[in-house]
From TrEMBL:
GO biological process, one term: carbohydrate metabolic process
Catalytic EC class: transferase
Alphabetical UniProt keywords: Carbohydrate metabolism, Glycosyltransferase, Transferase
Molecular function per GO: 4-alpha-glucanotransferase activity
Lineage per the UniProt record: Bacteria, Bacillati, Actinomycetota, Actinomycetes, Kitasatosporales
Entry EC no(s): 2.4.1.25
InterPro entries hit by this protein: GH (IPR017853), Glyco_hydro_77 (IPR003385)
Chain spans, region Disordered: 205-228
Annotated family: Belongs to the disproportionating enzyme family.
Record's catalysed reaction(s): Transfers a segment of a (1->4)-alpha-D-glucan to a new position in an acceptor, which may be glucose or a (1->4)-alpha-D-glucan
Name of the protein in question: 4-alpha-glucanotransferase
């Protein structure tokens, strides 16, 4: 009982519900380990009692929590934290813009705080709150003032979901780059009336050691989420490239030639995308560019970027410089260098000054090309432009885990508990943030992360958005089944998200697929976070008044409006593969099925047939079943018939690509994150070939203005997004 109370006081769950009506207790060992990672000793009954007493004394003696949230549409004293202040407490708010506001809680208020003069409403920002109690005690807290709701999309819009590495053009160095993204945004905005392009996480990757094994190609396990990966740079678009002379110019051209051969091996010879090989060529070319002196204007811009990014960029570049010398996992470095603030690290930074500058320069160059891509997208008429993707976490040996050690829970990994899809659970190998340290810092790491991602974006997708509420912590060396949930202050996390989205004038999309804790989707909707709805998963599971639903495909007019509606994602089969059942055969061939192949095939075919039958009844499949292209178009007609504010088109679906980009549950068995976009026959396509594809243009007729689709019944219709035009 004491352990349960202690765990609850620190946000550590002692049980969880994998499905409605079912509760599974967390192991005592997992709870104790999670508490230990939070700096709480529960190793013995005596230690547990002492820790609980200390926690209760701390809470009762604190005037304020470390971070207080207020919503800008309500008077400040309505925030719950102020209701705890004793009568006569003097309160001062120091605004981030330099202003101040003060008031005093009235005597005899009995914990009800009257509004200060003018019913103070704070401007959005992170302010400083100071309280002086009548007994002389003082307290300070971070005060996050945020809009209650994140802005909504500007009308109905459609756009593309793209894995950037897979989008190669005639100019790519073996994988898609920011030049390709810029060209795709311009073309799809002008010619296809797209309103956005959502890309995979472009976070900085963990470098592969020279001569060592290849790096992890997954964009969801980066070294750093704070800065983008320079592997995405279009080398020739760096302004200094045209100033290369002599031997440097000759070498750069040789590297371009090697890149062309690498590109041809992927596009024409069936080779996989090799990120490490691409980076080896680009890194050498960028080294040549680093030797070219910056002109006065460029030097001033670079200096401004360094000043703006400050210590965060210095630490980031230092980690990469040290990784060149000691390897890509800081745990294996000399002990003194494992501390980013040690004198030895400062000395190493000075000794490696040129390498630190090189990696800082790469961050600046990548940031500039991202800015160009977003600017081009908006100039092409996109209402939103780029949608960046925020991964759940970072590699434990990478730059962020080194620079922000204080904010990560030692000896813990993020994953997922067992469920109907994975009886063994999942361990993602990502260290979790400590909720207590986040609160103590005013959520500074989270704020900085969001601000960096939203610099050049119209929207942000948050992968596993449930992580704003809770994460499954797994003790190091233990099975994923032996973890437990640790809760975060969802109000504070959402306030920070809303604040940074407001500063950037951006939308937020949450990936909320699968089993989600009750109330989470409702809370996200209240704050303007759009959800994610995949057609094949949208069924009538819950009827009216809590009754059991039919389990049939959810009618279009019953879909939620506040979402991105799509046919598939990077973790799911492309639509062509799902329609044909090829995804079942692929999983069988890789040994991933837990049931008989015939059973799996029959179930998948019945699922598809039920949806296609509905589309036929609605008049969306005029030619009947049997034509793959017609069926894929019909699926997207249905998506347009829903009230969803955004419709996402998986770019490979437009040309009939059948191969998933990622197959969860596999590592070496399948080429995850290494496939170029291909046509229905598996032939890789360049960006230029995509733009000329008859199949793509036939697909996009679905999005022409006036393309009427039936909704739910013959009496109801909905049209495609206004403003779309024929391609």
């Amino acid at each position: 009982m004491t352990l349960s109370r202690l765990a609850a006081a620190h946000g550590v769950a002692t049980s969880y519900s994998p499905s409605p009506g079912r509760t599974v207790p967390a192991s005592e060992a997992a709870v104790i380990a999670a508490l230990a990672a939070l700096g709480v000793d529960a190793s013995t009954p005596e230690a547990t009692r002492a820790a609980l007493a200390a926690r209760e004394a701390h809470l009762s003696g604190s005037l304020l929590p470390p971070t207080v949230v207020v919503w800008t549409d309500a008077p400040v004293p309505e925030a719950p934290a102020f209701a705890r202040l004793a009568p006569g407490t003097r309160v001062r708010v120091e605004l981030e813009n330099g202003g101040t506001a003060t008031w005093e809680t009235p005597p005899g208020s009995d914990a009800t705080v009257a509004s200060p003069p003018g019913a103070l409403r704070l401007p959005p920002g992170v302010h400083r709150l100071v309280a002086l109690g009548p007994d002389g005690r003082t307290a300070q807290a971070h005060l996050v003032a945020a809009p209650r709701r994140i802005k909504a999309p500007p009308g109905r819009t459609h756009g593309f979901l793209v894995q950037l590495y897979s989008l190669l053009s005639r100019h790519s160095w073996g994988m898609g780059d920011l030049g390709d993204l810029t060209e795709f945004a311009a073309w799809s905005g002008y010619s296809l009336d797209a309103g956005f392009v959502q890309v995979n996480p472009l976070h900085a990757a963990v470098p592969s050691p020279p001569g060592g094994p290849g790096g992890d190609p997954s964009p969801y396990r980066p070294s750093s989420r704070r800065f983008p990966d320079p592997v995405h740079l279009r080398v020739e678009d760096v302004p200094e490239y045209v100033r290369l002379r002599g031997a440097a110019r000759e070498r750069a051209e040789e590297l371009r030639g090697a890149a062309g051969r690498l590109r041809a091996s992927v596009l024409r010879e069936g080779e996989l995308i090799d990120r490490d090989a691409v980076w080896a060529l680009k890194r050498e070319a960028l080294e040549l560019l680093h030797d070219v002196p910056l002109g006065p204007g460029r030097r001033a811009a670079y200096s401004a970027f360094l000043a703006e990014q400050g210590t965060a960029l210095e630490d980031h570049a230092t980690w990469y410089a040290l990784a060149e010398a000691y390897g890509p996992d800081w745990h294996s470095w000399p002990a003194a260098l494992r501390d980013p603030a040690s004198p030895e690290t400062a000395r190493a930074r000075r000794e490696l000054m040129d390498r630190v500058d090189f990696h800082s320069r790469l961050a600046w160059l990548t940031d500039a090309q991202l800015a160009t891509a977003q600017r081009t997208a908006r100039e092409a008429g996109m209402a939103i432009g780029l949608v960046h993707d925020l991964a759940v976490g970072v590699h434990p040996g990478g730059a962020d885990a080194w620079a922000q050690q204080r904010h990560f829970a030692p000896g813990m990994s993020v994953g997922a508990p067992p469920d109907a899809f994975n009886a063994r659970g999942q361990d993602w190998g990502l260290p979790p943030w400590r909720p207590d340290r986040l609160a103590e810092s005013g959520y500074a790491p989270f704020r900085a992360l969001l601000r960096g991602l939203l610099r050049h974006a119209g929207a942000l997708r948050v992968d596993h958005v449930m992580g704003l509420f809770r994460l499954w912590w797994i003790p190091e060396g233990r099975d994923p089944t032996e973890g437990t949930y640790v809760h975060y202050d969802a109000e504070a996390m959402l306030a920070v998200l809303a604040l940074e989205a407001h500063r950037a004038d951006a939308l937020v999309i949450g990936e909320d697929l699968g089993t989600v804790e009750p109330g989470v989707r409702e809370t996200l909707r209240e704050h303007g976070v759009l959800g994610t709805s995949v057609l094949w998963f949208e069924r009538d599971w819950a009827g009216a008044d809590g009754a059991e639903g039919t389990g049939r495909p959810l009618p279009a007019d019953a879909w939620r409006a506040d979402c991105v509606a799509t046919a598939t994602t990077h973790d799911l089969p492309p639509t062509a593969a799902r329609l044909s059942g090829e995804h079942v055969r692929l999983r069988y061939d890789l040994g991933l099925l837990t049931r008989d192949l015939a059973v799996e095939r029959a179930e998948a075919a019945a699922d598809v047939h039920e949806w296609l039958a509905l589309l036929g009844r609605l008049g969306m499949l005029p030619g009947g079943m049997g034509c793959e292209e017609d069926e894929i178009r019909a699926v997207h007609r249905f998506l347009l018939a829903t009230p969803a504010r955004m419709v996402g088109i998986w770019l490979p679906d437009t040309v009939g690509d059948r191969r998933p980009q990622n197959l969860p549950g596999t590592r070496d068995q399948y080429p995850n994150w290494r496939l170029p976009i291909a046509d229905a026959a598996g032939r890789p396509l360049t960006l230029e070939e995509l733009a000329a594809s008859p199949r793509l243009h036939a697909f996009m007729t679905v999005f022409r203005p006036g393309a009427v689709t039936a909704v739910g019944s013959a009496e109801t219709t909905r049209t495609a997004p206004p403003g779309a035009h024929p391609v």
